[in-house]
Amino acid sequence: MGYSAWFQCINEGCSATYALDEIIYTCQTCGELLEVVHDVDELKKKSANDWKDLFDKRYRDNTWPYGSAIWGKREWVCPMIKDKNIVSLYEGNTNLFWAERFGNEIGIPDLWIKQCGNSHTGSFKDLGMTVLVSMVKQMISDGKEINAVACASTGDTSAALAAYCATAGIPAIVFLPKDKVSTAQLVQPMANGALVLALDTDFDGCMKVVREICYENNIYLANSMNSLRIEGQKTISIEIVQQMNWKVPDWIIIPGGNLGNVSALGNGFLLMEQLGVIKKRPKIVLAQAEKANPLYLSYLKEFEDFHPITAGKTLANAIQIGNPVSVKKAINTLKEFDGLVEQASEEELANASARADRTGMFNCPHTGVALAVLLKLVERHTISKGESVVVISTAHGLKFTDFKIKYHQQKIEGINAHYANMPIDLSPDIDKIKETIFKRLG
Fold this sequence. Notes:
Blueprint: E1 5-9, E2 17-18, E3 34-38, H1 40-43, H2 48-58, E4 96-98, H3 100-106, E5 111-115, H4 125-141, E6 148-152, H5 156-168, E7 172-177, H6 183-191, E8 195-199, H7 203-216, E9 219-221, H8 227-233, H9 235-243, E10 251-255, H10 260-274, E11 283-289, H11 294-299, H12 327-336, E12 340-344, H13 346-357, H14 365-379, E13 389-393, H15 401-408, H16 430-441
Parallel strand pairs: 5-13, 6-7, 6-9, 7-8, 10-11, 10-13, 11-12
Antiparallel strand pairs: 1-2, 1-3, 4-5
Helix pairs in contact: 4-5, 4-8, 5-6, 8-10, 9-10, 10-12, 13-14
């Protein structure tokens, strides 16, 4: 196709480059993280309108592989992978839900929820994993020795890795913190045949182990420090704008743990801006759980420094990360987008999730963090009534039924569950049933 991309060091004083099919995760010169850079001059040979028309034509197309929201934008993602090596489960194209009732309730009528959990394994992680596993398949096809692909995970990454590796016939290894992921998240990699290693540590401990394993044993690293993941995840930005008829929302709120997703979000908007597809940028809000808030603490000091913390136990276990790998990328993105960072307590995230559920949603606790932050920003008038807001919902609520049940049973310690709603046990007595119904109806 004539389009090309490569890894490049994020350190402006270095800017070393590497091929995308090179097994490398950090710069060999300075040790910094890498990012994928595209030949923008070549992409500019097609006009902004032509790109929009092409992506609209491919949207949900049954022609392989364009029905995938990622591979329908392949020229902007990873153009050098051959069709036969693309590993896709037709990820993306998830619902941009107009949260009309909830929005009107809180005074933001132009409120949208990007439901990334409506994907094959139930989270946004599918968007990046299709790119990474496809590149691994391409490298194996080209003769590179890769024995397996591995990741550390708080649940969702392991599910995505296991599913895509199973589809490709590539062994997968996942490192999970023991007793710190939901049952649904644990079952997914088990079902797809991955080697599941439950370590008696937290996510940061699992991350330390997997990095050492991958650097020495022809096992490819699949965590978001690998920028191929970010390339798939950046299509969230493009897809949101496409679903809004190529208009940019005023605000985007996204929950963050390891922080790869916020830089992915920014990368998508920056590329659209470079190619003339959009003329303005949204403001990006990074939402963290109060018990796992290292970036929030850095933001309070205007990002002058950053100090890892030991993350406390939080209901939002997928973002229970105290030493995020992609922190420098995230800070760069937030500065570029006039962004801000806010936190939510356990009670705030639980009640925000349940309150929104009352208007037809079914939110994971991480989306609850983002919704709680939204409520704070509206209350402070940081976000005003006339502005458009998109909240990124990162995973499906069905992966966190234990959280949901315990909330409604009012069994979460320290949480005053304002929206608890349990079944009412009754005998099959018509009068009793009528009395109960009309008491509820008022």
